[in-house]
Write a structure and sequence with these properties.
single chain, 430 residues, alpha/beta, globular, binds 2-acetamido-2-deoxy-beta-D-glucopyranose
Length: 430
Amino acid sequence: MKSSSYCKEQQHQYNFFKKDTFLSLANTTSILFYTTCLATLFTFYLIYYPINITYTSNIQEYNQISNFTQPENGKSNNKSSDKCDLFKGQWIQDERGPLYTNYSCKTIPLQRNCFLNGRKDRDFLHWKWKPDQCELPRFNAETFLSILQGRTMAFVGDSLARNHMESLLCLLSTVETPKAIQEDKEEDKSAIWEFPKQNFTLMVFWSQFLVQSTEKVINGSATGSFEIQLDKIDKKWSKKLPIMDYVIFSDAHWFSREHDLYEDDKHIGCVYCQKPNVTVLGPGPALRKAFRAAFKEINSCKNCKKVFTMLRTFSPSQFENGEWNTGGGCNRTRLVERDEVAREGYDWETRKIQVEEIAVARKLGEKSGNKFEILDVTEMMLMRPDGHPGVHWGNRWMNGYSDCIHWCLPGPIDAWNELLLEVIRRRQLT
Ligand SMILES: *[C@@H]1O[C@H](CO)[C@@H](O)[C@H](O)[C@H]1NC(C)=O
Ligand SMILES: *[C@@H]1O[C@H](CO)[C@@H](O)[C@H](O)[C@H]1NC(C)=O
Ligand SMILES: *[C@@H]1O[C@H](CO)[C@@H](O)[C@H](O)[C@H]1NC(C)=O
Ligand SMILES: *[C@@H]1O[C@H](CO)[C@@H](O)[C@H](O)[C@H]1NC(C)=O
Ligand SMILES: *[C@@H]1O[C@H](CO)[C@@H](O)[C@H](O)[C@H]1NC(C)=O
Ligand SMILES: *[C@@H]1O[C@H](CO)[C@@H](O)[C@H](O)[C@H]1NC(C)=O
Ligand SMILES: *[C@@H]1O[C@H](CO)[C@@H](O)[C@H](O)[C@H]1NC(C)=O
C-alpha cells in the first residue's frame, strides 16, 4: 500500500513536469517573449555558474571525451595502465557532471531521487574517481552492452546491491530503454530487466545474508533478528545460478544485528547477544562463513557456466551526531580528505574479511575457469559522506530520519559502474 501511493505520487510529479503547460497556451508573440527571457536568463546562468550546466545525456559527446579503448578482438593492448590499482586514488573535480538526470532516467526509485525530495546542492555530482596510476574511463553504455551482449548479470545481496543495479539501469538507459520482465516496487524482492537489442539481462536478487535465514517472531511481531543457517545457501539466488554469467555480491550491513547462528543444523553461537552459555561470534565470522558458502556454491556448481563473480566491498553507513534512530544525519556537502579517512574499526575489518574471502575463492575457483574479482569501494566511499539521501529520501512516515547508507541517484555510486566496466574489460583481455 505504502509503496504504491509513493509511486502514484511520483508519477503525478513526473507528468506535471513533462506536460508543456507553457507552450500550449502560447501564441507567437508570447513565444518570442519567453524565448528572449530564457536566452537572457541562460546568459546570466552561463556567466555566473559555468560549472553547473553540463547535464546532458548526449552519449556521442561523452564518447569523444572518454579515452576508452575497446579491446580489439580480445587482443591485449598490454598497457601499463591495465595493471594499475583502480581502488587506490582520490576524487577529483569534474565539471561534466552525471550521464543521466532524474528526467532522463525513468527508473530512479523515489527514495533515491534526492532532487525530487528536495535536495538543493549539486556540487556532489561534480567529482570523478581518479586512480593514482591511471585514468578510470567514463562509463560508456555502448561499450558495456557490446561486451555483455547475450549475457546475464545478477546483483545479489542487500539493498545496496539494488542501489548499485539501479545506477547501472540509469546509465544503460541512455542508449536503450530497458524492458521490465519482473518488477517489484518493494525493496525486498527481486527484479529482472532486459535490454532487447543487445540481449542483455540484468537481475537483482534480494538475499540479505546470501544463506538461508528465518526472522524471529516474538508475540506475533517481527523482530529484525534472524536465525541464520551459515552453511545452507539461499535458494532464491542459487537456483538461478545456471543462467548467470556475472554475479556481483553485496552483503554486510544485515549481519550486525542480534542473530542466532547455525551450522550443520547446530546452534554454534550468536551475534550481539547476551545469553548464558552461548558463544558470541560477532558479525565478522558470520559474514565470512556466508561468503565462503556462496563462493563454494559457485565453484562446485555442475550445471553452471563459467561465472565471473565480483564482490563489492563494504559501503559504510555514515551517520553523524547519532545513529539513524537517535537523531543522526548526514548533511555534509563536502568530501572527506583522503588522509582523514579512518582505515580501522568496524568498516575496515568488514572490508578486510571480504578481501580475504575473495582471495580464497579465487585460489579455489580460477583453475576451473571461474573468475573472481573485487570492487573495493570502501575507502573511496568513506570519502563521500556527501552522497547520501540524508533527509531527502521522501519518506513522509519517517519524517526527520535520515538515510546515510544508500546513495543518491545520480551520485557517487555511479562510479561503482565505471569500476565494474573497467574490471570486466581488463579480464576480457586476459
Ligand atoms: C585522453 O588522452 C590524452 C592523451 O593521452 C590526454 O591528453 C587527455 O587528457 C585524455 N583525456 C581525458 C578526458 O582523460
Ligand atoms: C605484457 O606485460 C607483462 C608484464 O608487464 C609482460 O611480462 C608481457 O611480456 C607483456 N606482453 C606483451 C605481449 O607485451
Ligand atoms: C528532478 O529534480 C528536480 C529538482 O532538481 C525536481 O524539481 C523534479 O521534480 C525532479 N523530477 C523528477 C521526474 O524526478
Ligand atoms: C540471448 O542470449 C541467450 C543466452 O546467451 C541465448 O540463449 C538466446 O538465444 C539469445 N537470444 C537472442 C534473441 O539472441
Ligand atoms: C509476549 O506476550 C506476553 C503476554 O502479553 C508477555 O508476558 C511476554 O513478556 C511477551 N514476550 C516478549 C518476549 O515480549
Ligand atoms: C552454563 O554452563 C554451566 C557449566 O557447564 C552450567 O553449570 C550452567 O547451568 C549453564 N547455564 C545455563 C543457563 O544453561
Ligand atoms: C547539519 O547537521 C548538524 C547536526 O547533525 C546541524 O548542527 C547543522 O546545522 C546541519 N547543517 C545544515 C546545513 O543543515
